[in-house]
Structures are given as C-alpha cells and as structure tokens.
Amino acid sequence: MNVGGALAQAGLAPIDAQVLLAFVVGRDRSWLVAHRDDVLSREHLDTYNALTRRRRDGEPVAYLTGMREFWGLPLCVTTDVLIPRPETETLVELALARLPVDADVRVLDLGTGSGAIALAIAHERPLAQVVAIDASPAALDVARANAERLSIRNVTFAASDWYGNVGVEPFDLIVSNPPYIAGGDPHLAEGDVRFEPSSALTPGGDGLDALRVIVDGAPARLVPGGTLLVEHGYDQREAVAALFQAARFTRLTAARDLAGQWRVAGGAI
Ligand code: GLN
Question: Which atom of ligand 1 is nearest to the CA of 201?
C-alpha cells in the first residue's frame, strides 16, 4: 500500500493519521505530502496499522509517538505525565513577561510533569535558575530526560509534595499547572484524559485543593514583589481570584487561553 492509501484507510482524523505515519517512517508530515505514491514496506505498514488501531481505541497520539511539542521544544512524554497542552503556553507567556532576560532570577515550577513549563522558561531565560518539583518519581525521570536531551542545564529537579522539599531560598516567580479538574467531572471519563495520570488532572473534590495549597503557601516562598502564576479550569476564575485575595496577593491578573477561556491567574506579594 502507498502513503496516500495508508492515510486514507486509517479511519482517523487526517492530522492523527499523518502524525502516526510520519513517526513510523521517520520523516516529517511534509514528506508524506510529497511521497503520496511511495509504497510502504510491510514492516512500516504493520507498525502503522497497530498504532492506528490503538488510536481508534482512544489512546492519545502523543503517547503513541512518545512525543509532543511544547513552546517549540520537542518533549518526550509517557503515561506517567500529562500531555503538555497549547493552553499552558499562555502561562509561559505571562511568566516570561515577568522575567527580565538579563537577570539571574529564581523560578519554581510546582508539579512539573514532563518538565514543559520549567524547560520552556529555562530555555528562554538562560540566566534563570529554575527549580522543578513533582511528587511522582516517574514524572521526574521523564522531565530530567527531557532536560538532558535538550541540553537545558539551568533546571534542577527534586521530588517534593508541593512546597514540602523546595528549600528555604525564596523565589522571584512561582508557576504551576496543577491538577484542577473536579473529582466528579464527566470529562475525566472522555477522550485523551482517560489515559493520563489522574494525579496530574484532578485533586478530587471541587478541583481546587491543589490550587489552595499552592496559593496559600506561595507568600512564604516568594521574595517581596515576587509573583505567583497558576493555570486553572475554565470555570474557576472567580474562585482562584478569591484564593489570591485571601492570601493577600496584590496586582491580581487573569488571562484567557487561545480558545478564549479564562485559564491563568496571577498576583504579586
Ligand atoms: N487542561 C487540562 C484538561 O482540561 C487539565 C490539566 C490540569 O488539570 N492541570 O484536560
């Protein structure tokens, strides 16, 4: 079978079929367009058919290829980490706006997962010292491997349950994309999220428990004038702003993601 036929008979969204076939043949998607009539080897076709079957059964493309791009950085992902989302790039943008290029600032990323946020910031701000923590040793392995592969050296990783093991030196900026989906949210049983670690998606209850710990604990770990930025659910803007106010943050900010949903909250201390 040729490239065009394999793409057409996958029974998948064209983009998913293209990403999977490009992965199998070790080329990029533009190569597929120029080689629609090339005949695929038996081996490539078998591998591709196995992957398209798994995709039809619901597995996320990023877990099938082991790869997802975030902030232009190709990141390895496994089922031990959340798949980085485009909406989280909004958080990175706001973080970078607060970090001068020429200053040697300290940044903390809570619940780093694949390392996406920490690595994006560290890559853009080579003088920043970024500390990235996660409670999951398996996630830290993925994040460390990503830093190594991308030769990003200004991030240190540590196992920590939120602020439990972050040291005593204060930070200029704390960022986090914590689990924030409510425990009973039906969306947890649909689509790609079914395959993601539930500890990265939901703290249970109303979805705000992790954000409460992060917001309440931040003032004690920030320098005067330091900033906290967090990602939250589309319907949590007011609840999260109230947490920031209760913890005496000032200069509260909020931002929408590219889909127009309120997604990021921030404040200074
Ligand atoms: N944005 C993700 C989703 O809705 C959730 C990520 C998170 O809980 N931090 O699928």
Answer: 8
